[in-house]
């Protein structure tokens, strides 16, 4: 585990609300849409997101999260983890259809360190925090003995793609989105990979 110094730090349970916002920003509204579907009566979609952020295990967990602070408050977020070196193909019929294209792309990136979420609050964009966090992701990948970083992004998210390609990510595959009633301008999910050493 690499040592972090402020302004970067590992998330805690108290960061759940900010994490949910970052996840929704990175997911371009898809997380909120899904949380709305799974909220219990009397529970807000955000509360679903907060609960998931507080989990001890799973992809979206505070344990997989690094925050970039500004003035003592979260300004940007990296959530990621190493993928297994060998893919055990899941039963795609057991996965909600909207997630199947993303899972198929993730399955094409075995042995990489997967950037699940990279996001900044709108008022902190353009400050280089995304590039900072991607540099940390590279350190984490090397620490985990992974040979590459991987990330999945919407084809419509041109700003994020510019950042990823500027720091060395390249498109390796894409799959058509399955949207149900989620409204989004994109057509495809795109897998980008960057070798690290």
What's the mean pLDDT score? 94
| Order of secondary-structure elements | EHHHEEHEHEHEE
Give the overall shape, derived from the CA principal axes. globular
Largest sheet: 7 strands, mixed
Number of helices: 6
Beta-strand content bin: 15-25%
How far apart, in Å, are the first and last alpha carbons?
Answer: 17 Å
Helix-strand category: alpha+beta
Number of strands: 7
Helical coverage, percent range:
25-40%
Rg calc: 16 Å
The main sheet orders its strands as 1-2-3-4-5-7-6
pLDDT below 50 for ≥5 consecutive residues: which ranges? none
Q: How would you sum up this structure, described in words?
A:
With 197 residues, the chain is α+β, with helices and mostly antiparallel strands. Helix content is 30%, strand content 25%. Strands 1-2-3-4-5-7-6 form a seven-stranded mixed β-sheet, with helices on both faces. Strand 4 (113-120), helix 5 and strand 5 (148-154) form a beta-alpha-beta unit. The longest helix has 15 residues, at 129-143.
Give keywords.
alpha+beta, 7 strands, 30% helix, 197 residues, 6 helices, seven-stranded mixed β-sheet
In a few lines, what is going on in this structure?
This protein has helices spanning 16-26, 30-38, 45-53, 100-106, 129-143, 158-166; strands at residues 8-10, 65-70, 73-82, 113-120, 148-154, 170-176, 188-195. It has 197 residues and is of the alpha+beta class.
Itemize the secondary structure elements and their pairings:
Blueprint: E1 8-10, H1 16-26, H2 30-38, H3 45-53, E2 65-70, E3 73-82, H4 100-106, E4 113-120, H5 129-143, E5 148-154, H6 158-166, E6 170-176, E7 188-195
Parallel strand pairs: 4-5
Antiparallel strand pairs: 1-2, 2-3, 3-4, 5-7, 6-7
């Amino acid at each position: 585990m690499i040592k972090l110094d402020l302004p970067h730090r590992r998330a805690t349970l108290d960061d759940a609300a900010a994490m949910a916002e970052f996840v929704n920003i990175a997911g371009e509204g898809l997380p909120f849409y899904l949380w709305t579907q799974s909220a219990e009566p009397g529970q807000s979609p955000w509360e679903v997101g907060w609960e998931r952020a507080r989990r001890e295990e799973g992809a979206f967990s505070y344990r997989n999260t690094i925050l970039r602070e500004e003035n003592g408050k979260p300004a940007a977020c990296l959530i990621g983890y190493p993928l297994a070196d060998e893919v055990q193909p899941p039963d795609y019929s057991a996965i909600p259809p909207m997630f199947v294209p993303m899972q198929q792309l993730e399955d094409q990136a075995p042995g990489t360190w997967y950037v699940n979420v990279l996001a900044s609050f709108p008022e902190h964009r353009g400050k280089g925090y995304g590039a900072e966090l991607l540099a940390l992701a590279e350190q984490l990948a090397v620490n985990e003995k992974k040979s590459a970083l991987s990330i999945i992004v919407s084809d419509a998210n041109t700003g994020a793609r510019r950042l990823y390609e500027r720091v060395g990510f390249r498109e390796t595959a894409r799959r058509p989105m399955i949207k149900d009633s989620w409204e989004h301008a994109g057509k495809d999910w795109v897998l980008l990979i960057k070798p690290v050493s």
